[in-house]
Amino acid sequence: MCSVNKYCNPGFTLANMKLLIFFAFVTAVRGQFECPVDIDGNPIDGGFAHETDCTRFYNCWEGEATEWTCEDGLWFDSWTQGCVHPIRSDCKAGDYNNARCRMTPNDPDAGQQIFGDVFFRQNQTGGNTDIYVELRGFDPNDAEVLHGMHVHTEGSIEGGCAATGGHFNPTSSNHGSPASEDRHVGDLGNIEEDTTGSVVMVLIDDKISLLPANPNYIIGRSIVVHATYDDYGLGNGTSLINGNAGARLACCVIMANDF
Asked: Which UniProt keywords apply (predicted)?
C-alpha cells in the first residue's frame, strides 16, 4: 500500500508507451508541431516539450508529430523522455527555483550502494519547498526500512560523507522532526524504502529555501542519507543533536538546477 506522502506512480517512458497507451494518456492527436531534423535534413525521432503546457508533449516519428497528454498529475520530461512527477520534470512552468542533488554512496563504502536523485522546487515568491526523492540501492533484507535524511552544512563530499559536517542549523536549535517548531532547518525526517530497496517519495518542507536572500538557503549545501531511522529528538541526549540516525550511507551536494 502507498502512504500519503509517497507518489506511487512515478510515470512511464516512451520505451514502454505501447503497453501503457490505453491508460497513461488522456488524449493523442495529430499536432501542428514541426519535428526537428539533423544537419543532413533527416527527421529526429523522440519526445519534445509542448510550447506552453507541461502536461503535453509531441512524439515525433519519421517526421510526423503526434500530440500526447500525460495522465493526470504528471508532466513531460525531455531528459527521461517520459511523464514524471512535476518536481522532477525539466519543463519550466511558472516562476520556480529548482535544485537537484545526485546521490552517491559514502566513501569508504558503508555497505549499501545508494544512487539516485533528490529534486527540490520552490516558488520564487517563497513558501513551502517541494522535495521529490528517488533513490535505489538500499538493502531490502535488513531490518532498517526508515532512514534519516538531512541537509548538512558543508557543500563538499570529498573523502566521503564525513566532509558534510553536521546538520544545517543556522538558528542553533535542537534536533527535531520536520513538524517541530524547535528543529534544525536541515531536519527533513525519515524516508521509507520499499521491498525492492528503493525510495520514491514526495516531501513538503516549510523551513528550507531555494531563495538566495533567505537565511535557510540550501543551494551549495549537502544531503546525507543515514543507515537507521531518525528518532526526531525524542531519545537520549545525542538525539537532540542528530536523531540517532546512525552511519552515513550516501550523500550529495545540492546544486541549482536551471535545466
From this structure: Copper, Metal-binding, Oxidoreductase, Zinc
pLDDT at 3 over 50: no
4 lies in some domain: no
- Does 152 participate in catalysis according to the annotation? yes
Are both 71 and 188 inside the same structural domain? no
Last residue of a domain, which of 61, 88, 115? 88
Which pLDDT value is given to residue 5?
Answer: 34
Average pLDDT over residues 247-252: 97
Q: Is 147 a catalytic residue?
A: no
- The one catalytic residue among 184, 205, 230, 231: 184
50/149 same-domain check = no
Q: What's the CATH code of the domain at 59? A: 2.170.140
Q: Cβ contacts of residue 75 below 8 Å, gap of 6+?
A: 54, 55, 83, 84, 85, 86, 89, 91, 93
Query: In the annotation, is 248 catalytic?
Result: yes
- Taking only Cα atoms into account, the Rg of the chain, rounded to an integer number of angstroms, comes to 20
- Total domains in the chain come to 2
What backbone torsions phi and psi does residue 155 show, to the nearest 5 degrees? Answer: -100, 45
User: What does the pLDDT look like over 50-63, one tens digit per residue?
Assistant: 988 999 999 999 99
End-of-domain residue from the set 88, 116, 141 = 88
Mean pLDDT of 110-137: 94
Q: Is 221 an annotated catalytic residue?
A: no
> How large is the average pLDDT for residues 194-215?
97
Q: Are residues 225 and 165 in the same domain?
A: yes
